[in-house]
Amino acid sequence: MSIPDTTPDAKVPMKIKLAFGFGAIAYGIKDNGFSVFLLIFYNQVIGLPADLVGLAVMIALIIDAFIDPVIGHLSDRTNSSWGRRHPWIYASIIPVGLSWFLLWHPPEWSQTGILVFLTLSAILVRSAIAMNEVPSIAMLPELTADYHERTDVIRYRFLFGWVGGLIILWLAYAVFLAPTPEQPKGLLRREGYDAYAWTGVIMMCTAVFVAAVGTHKRMAKRPERLPPKRPLGEELKAIAGTLNNKAFLTLMAAGIFAYANQGLNFATSTYMQNYVWEFPRLAFAAWPVSLLLGVVLAFFVAPIASRRFGKKRAAAFFAFAAVIFFLTPYILRYLELFPVNGDPITLPLFFALMTISTGLGICPMILVGSMLADVIEDSEMKTGQREEGLFFAGNLFMQKCVTGIGTFAAGSLITAVGFPQHAVPGQVDPAVIERLVLAFICLTGFFVICSVLIFLRFPLGEADHEERLRILAGQKPS
Questions:
Q1: Structural domain of residue 238, as residue ranges?
Q2: Mind giving me the DSSP string for 214-281?
Q3: pLDDT of 31-80, one tens digit each?
Q4: How many C-beta neighbours within 10 Å does residue 420 have?
Q5: pTM for this one?
Q6: CATH of the domain at 120
Q7: 220 falls within a domain
């Protein structure tokens, strides 16, 4: 395996940072589709009950997520002239495009048939993305061992991932799903989802290919050493032993609540903007732009806060601050203190709060990715092996399972409050809207508070990271 540069000023070239980040566009588009449009597409357009859509996505994600550790484990042991990661990345290009197309083109089957189709196609999409995402993100610890440079590098992956998702989100609201005289309810235009799917195919395949080529020269080299191969039983024990790392388990526990909250928020966002706030068409086109400003804010703020306060404290603070800004309009709305729908100040005030919340909320995600890279050396100290793919696959495993739970919670929430199918904005019973807002506030607050408390228990910091690097390099402890 390649050994990262451990010198204090080890900087990754900008072209490598850009290429490393560019591949995340595929992951961002996938997340956008699953989180924002999948529920409303299969519920309001195809006619599958919301709780069944949430159930299908949760089952698919949990089943598919078991594939991720296998991909990570195998990529750690891949021995080719193109290195450990690139064979997997190149091989994922066609499956990514094909599975994404299938997801948005369900056949005209019975309700049970569509439920099975959704479950299987969701598994295919997630598995194909994992073939790219797990090996790609596992390159981070190999690119640099510098504590702060890792944050600088991984922020590009979050930047491009969010930009890719927001670009296709803007295209969906402003072009593909915009109202027409024939179909004034643009979000219910099935042909719009066809254009959305094809655009996603092109963007995702292009992103994976460009990222693979851009990092090929630096990373696609035959590994110098590989983890040992063992019988299946011993391999499974070794995997369990490696993942039974206190720092890793702490991050995963915090992530369980953070990503459950993200799944809940994204899956309900269209319902909230359409039926709670009754925003006009212009708002849906402007929404991605507002979120993009938040992404840019996080891109610059996260590394500064990491250097000043340390990764875990910064992550905990940002998570808490983000939920304060996020819930403010909903709490004030429930208390009847927020400007009413249609008031000129409602839309810009809501967008301003969401922009700040988005920026603050992305910062912990960037920092978690950087902290996870630091876990690699901690594990190497204890096991004698570097298994980047396995750890990052474990993280992706958690994200998939928990985002599925969040999506399931959203579908269950919508059903539990009695939200009607084929609802018309402005014509939903106010009591239903009130129940939806209150339940949403309680769930979101619970998820984030739990995440913050666990973040503060992360055991690794900058000083002990540098000490581990010295020991691994064969130097005496200081």
A1: 14-472
A2: HHHHHH-S--S--PPP--HHHHHHHHHHHH--HHHHHHHHHHHHHHHHHHHHHHHHHHIIIIIS---H
A3: 889 878 998 899 989 999 988 998 888 787 777 767 888 888 888 888 88
A4: 12
A5: 0.80
A6: 1.20.1250.20
A7: yes
